[in-house]
Amino acid sequence: MLISDLKDQKILIWGMGSEGKSVYDYLARHQVSSFIETYNDDEGELGLNKVWNCDVIIRSPGVSIYKQEIIKAKEKGIKITSSSDLFLNEMQKNHPKTKVIGITGSKGKSTSVSMLFHMLKELGLNVALGGNIGKPLIELIDGEYDYVVGEFSSYQASDLTASPNIVMFTNLFSVHTDWHGGHENYCRDKVHLAANQKKGDVCIVNRNNQQLIKYCRNLQRVVYYGGSDEFHAEGKDLFYRQEKLISLDELKLSGNHNMDNLAGVMSIIKELGLDFRKAVGYLKTFEPLPHRLQKVGTINGVLFINDSISTAPEAAIGAMQSFDENIVIISGGIENKQDYTDYARFIQANPKVKAAITLFQCGPQIADSIKKYVSRKDFRLIESNDLAQGVKQAYDILIEEGGGLVLFSPTAPSFGYYKNFMERGEHFISIVKTLAK
Question: Regarding predicted confidence, which is higher, 178 or 63?
């Protein structure tokens, strides 16, 4: 759907978070229609009347396409679109010279998007950053760019009618199953980001993730990374075939997994016909994202790491793999029907992980997996009441151990406890600062 298709339609913006507000402001500023209503789920039955009396629903990412009201609206002939879909169709129709690059994955997408944006900008190109990071995509429609780099969630990808010119998938794990109504739907919805690619477009896929390979096999054109004859990581080092390009030790990033993501990003650079050897050098000035393996500070030999952006057990495993010191991990968030078996087994096999502190709604589920799979006598499990208590308990354990790091890697979304992972991460940081006094 195009912006012009909304002209004088009865429009309902469902979900007035940051994206919904941006859509409302854009449509009002451009005087697209004088019939614009807004709706949030907490309005109840009275508010639902707005749903049945509109021509078009522009849904926010939090509004599931599997929601019964959305399904019923479709059956009534009401058109459903989103900020992401409007953006992609507009760019395709009215800005064909701008290449749109979309990156997604169960983990690693935010850092990947940020690294790519940084390199393109340093190469002197006119580039914009949008989606889940940077500006809301709808705000970029009127600009003229060489490239738009966007981070897309499975929520945004699920019902798109257009795709980015270049799509990159970092990985595919079981997360967000509630919104999607199951793991199978989640995988299909995530990969749907590339479903509408056209001739000349490309999808870049991590060869080392078997689920990705399975779900991407029918896409238009797939280019892989991660193999020995492609861009790939070996521990802390990034290679192009047999040529070493850069080491993690030369960067400000933490975590070997970032080199795997970087292999995908460099594949994009090469697909664009740009000098990837020159581009990779610019990463030495790249500042890591806040809330992703962010070093908060050290108190009496205990380092505190904020990994609040972590919303999956696999992300926490990757975080634990990134450090050689003694670790106490703090995990927990909203219940999201995730499997913590591999998380627990990783802890069992890694004696550097001295303790796990679980909290919030899914804390008991994490604790149950740990009780089932972790039998090390040198390991402690603490089911904590809140984050402040958990941080203090983790600190005390590591003081006894003679130092190490407290890793806050929640493994689950923050909704119900915090507005978003940023607020959650800031709370962790404030607790650490209080502890330092």
Answer: 63
Q: Longest Cα pair distance anywhere in the chain, in angstroms? A: 68
Q: Domain span at residue 60?
A: 3-80
Residue type, 354: K
Q: In b/e form, how buried is each residue of 367-381, taking b as 16+ CB within 10 angstroms?
A: bebbeebbeeeebee
Beta strand residue intervals within 319-383, DSSP E: 327-331, 353-358, 380-383
pLDDT at residue 423, rounded to an integer: 94
C-alpha distances out from residue 143 to 28, 103, 147, Å: 18, 20, 11
Which residues have C-beta within 8 Å of that of residue 332, sequence separation ≥ 6? 358, 359, 360, 361, 362, 363, 366, 410, 411, 412
Q: Tell me the sheet residues that pair with 38.
A: 13
Q: Are residues 232 and 175 in the same domain?
A: yes
Nearest to 340 by CA among 359, 321, 316: 316
176 has pLDDT over 90: no
Of the residues 231, 262, 285, the one at which a domain ends: 285
Q: What is the mean pLDDT of residues 348-370?
A: 95
* pLDDT at 44 > cutoff 60: yes
Q: Which of 103-107, 354-358, 424-428 has the lowest mean pLDDT?
A: 103-107
